[in-house]
Amino acid sequence: MLPNHLQLPPPRLLGRGLVLLVAAAALVTSVTFYVLDGSFVLTRLVSTDWKMHTDFETFWQSARALLEGRDIYETSAAVVNLNPPFASLVLAPLGWLDFWPAYRAFTLLCVALVVASMATVAGELRVRPAAAIMVTTAVLVSSPVLATLGLGQIYPLLMAGLTVAWVLGRRGHAVWAGAALGVVVALKPSLAPVLLLPLARRQWAVLTAAIGTGGLAALAGWFTAGWQSLPNWVLLVFDHPVQAYVDNASLVGTAQRLTTQSPGVDPLVELPGGAVIGLLLGLALVAVTTWTVRRPPAAGPDTGLWAMAGASLLASPLSWHNYLLLLMPGVLVLIVRGRWPIAALLLALSSIGMEWQWVWGAPAPAVAMSLYCGVLLAYWAALLQRPAARVDAEVVALPPAPGLPGQRTHVGV
């Protein structure tokens, strides 16, 4: 037996040290990019060139078309609108403003939604203010959030919807939790697998409310935008090819990138049907996730909803790395579970910006260009893991207030 001063640290301590070492490397990488070349996503955020805010320009053009009774999918926007008619209905008020006032108002709203989502989860879990502020700051300066704000994407709305559903589910408001999920799915149908969570847990009130609310929202958007809007949207979605661009973090896009020649990328191996392989892997991952989260955890806060959202993003044909912000409130849950090294790793990985792709030159190796898929997989795996029987959270969570229960009722979302 080795003397005490020569014995190796316990495996758990070694594991934490390794995780923190990788997190530090990711953070150093991000800082190096910024010092040497600045930040592309930050430059885009403050740019006064409307062409830099392409997604918002698409939404704004569709919103104006809706208000003027024109086809929301036939506009002069530089990028095609792949969102359902309901999204244009929600964003219709932006059409009353000129482009720049609308963009600034929408950006401020999105920042408020991100902060409110993080604050809501932190308050629900009674996370200490210092820890909550640090995590929220890391989220706000992350590449997915800055890129989302710069492009003018709707992901903060989805983030807020998932957060509302999670909080209402914890508090036992099944119908309202389901309604929030229904609105999220109506805005972004690729998130429909999240409805497998209440189905697997046999929470029929949640599932019925989600399907009913989502259906009514879809019908409202269809009715408002005109009868041709829904078939036009479906045709656009099915005509849109799977994109192997570095920013597509889904398994479908990654498999396409690894097996097919694409601009600036050297595939790992050339094979036919790469996207199909990725889709099958994604569907298998959704099935595994559904089975794993079929029961709420016996102790500690539940991350099943965010795990299902992560699986949905991985299985979708198109999931830009900006979608990652949907899962970021779950980082607070990991911290409360005592898994702060994993939380630090996830936040550090999220800080690596689009400059990653330019480091490798052209043609770049497809594996290196799939970093964001790896980050999304890391989030999914961390959120999928069930908590231990005892949650070690005294460092970051405040004790329950006198007279209040320490554990809320779970209804599954």
UniProtKB/TrEMBL annotation:
Lineage, highest ranks first: Bacteria, Bacillati, Actinomycetota, Actinomycetes, Pseudonocardiales
Q: EC number(s)?
A: 2.4.-.-
Into which family does the record put it?
Belongs to the glycosyltransferase 87 family.
Note the superkingdom of the native organism: Bacteria
Q: Which UniProt keywords apply?
A: Cell membrane, Glycosyltransferase, Membrane, Transferase, Transmembrane, Transmembrane helix
Record protein name field: Glycosyltransferase family 87 protein
Organism of origin is Pseudonocardia aurantiaca
The protein's location, in the record's own words, is: Cell membrane
Please report the record's description of how this protein sits within the membrane: Multi-pass membrane protein
Question: What residue intervals traverse the membrane?
Answer: 13-36, 102-123, 130-155, 175-197, 204-225, 271-291, 358-382
* Primary localization class, coarse: membrane
The record's section on InterPro entries has: GT87
What are the GO MF terms of this UniProt record? glycosyltransferase activity
